[in-house]
Amino acid sequence: MTPSRGPGRRPGTPDTRGEVLTAARTSFADKGFERTTIRAVAASAGVAPAMVHHFFGSKEDLFLEALAAPFDPRVVLRPVVEGPPDELGLRLARTFVTIWEDESRREPLVALVRGAMTSEPVAAMLRDGFLRIIASVLGPAVAGPDPLLRLQLAISQGLGMELFRYVVKVEPLASTPPEELIQRLAPVLQHHLRG
Amino acid sequence: MTPSRGPGRRPGTPDTRGEVLTAARTSFADKGFERTTIRAVAASAGVAPAMVHHFFGSKEDLFLEALAAPFDPRVVLRPVVEGPPDELGLRLARTFVTIWEDESRREPLVALVRGAMTSEPVAAMLRDGFLRIIASVLGPAVAGPDPLLRLQLAISQGLGMELFRYVVKVEPLASTPPEELIQRLAPVLQHHLRG
């Protein structure tokens, strides 16, 4: 992790990526999403800002990679905001349940929530980064006053349900078919988001 | 923790209580609530079953003490099931939020959920013991098919909200007045429980 590199070492090796990610994680955890800059992360990793952009894209991209986010909300949630507003709850319920049914995503999600429950830096990354990116995508589809509060209540319902289902493993919730969960969540999410 | 005691030692000292609680915790975590018996806990602690009953009451009482439960669902939730059925969601929302607003109860609740997230024995005590006792009180007030599932979805909404509010501390949820939360939760809980 030396800022100056020997002449025989090419920039952009896997080490560089790792150093940038380590610097990014430290900054996001310590300073939060808003006050983290690509410039400062690059300086901390001893590379040029352009290289961080080249490797990771935007600050959001870098954040999602640093968090090892199990999905990109900007991609996964885009279809949720498109479509009839009176089925917003249904689309969000379906997307939410589908993500959690995917084992390759469920385990990192559980790890993320577990981390947030036990570590303030991880909670800060969830709160100020991940939930903020989710809100930036879903927010415009929410109706009524206090859209952010509505969104947080909807997500907290989904998350609470998945924790009961997959971590606490309480029956019958743990073995309820996904489609039934979607149908049960949909009206509740619709109420939170647009009721 | 010897089963035979010296003649100078009276039964029922604080040590006895502690030994019974330790034995109870081990049994509830290993065997679950259903298969734990007062008789086996007493034997494991080297005391008479009557003494366990004398100190702790029923198996439910012993369990709640072993879990260091921050409230007794049989006491706290009793008023929730009494009253007009169309305000069940409102009464549960009010009770739920009120419990979490009480700092002396919130911290052990967070500890319990944190424990359940990271330790299977604690998850088992939450699942097979605490939630079961809650269900035994609230279950009769739930209407429609799958009452247990309805109850679990309602509780998961409340719990998810409180975790976002007090552990993740996401704004504006973290600083929303309790009465507003009650009003927002009430229709959702009503829908889960009787919709």
Describe the protein's architecture and organization:
2 copies of one chain form a homodimer. With 195 residues, chain A is mostly helical. Chain A folds into 2 domains: 14-66, Orthogonal Bundle (Arc Repressor Mutant, subunit A), CATH 1.10.10.60; 73-194, Tetracycline Repressor, domain 2 (Orthogonal Bundle). Chain A has helices at 14-35, 38-45, 49-56, 59-66, 73-76, 78-81, 88-101, 103-118, 120-138, 147-168, 178-194. In chain A, helix 1 (14-35) packs antiparallel against helix 2 (38-45), helix 1 (14-35) crosses helix 4 (59-66) and helix 7 (88-101) crosses helix 11 (178-194). The model of chain A is unreliable at 1-10 (pLDDT under 50). At the A-B interface, helix 8, helix 9, helix 10 and helix 11 of A face helix 8, helix 9, helix 10 and helix 11 of B.
- Fourth-level CATH superfamily of the largest domain in chain A: Tetracycline Repressor, domain 2
Termini gap of chain A: 52 Å
Strand content of chain A: under 5%
Number of strands of chain A: 0
Which word captures the global form of chain A?
globular
Assembly state of the chains shown: homodimer
Largest β sheet strand count, sense and barrel closure of chain A:
none
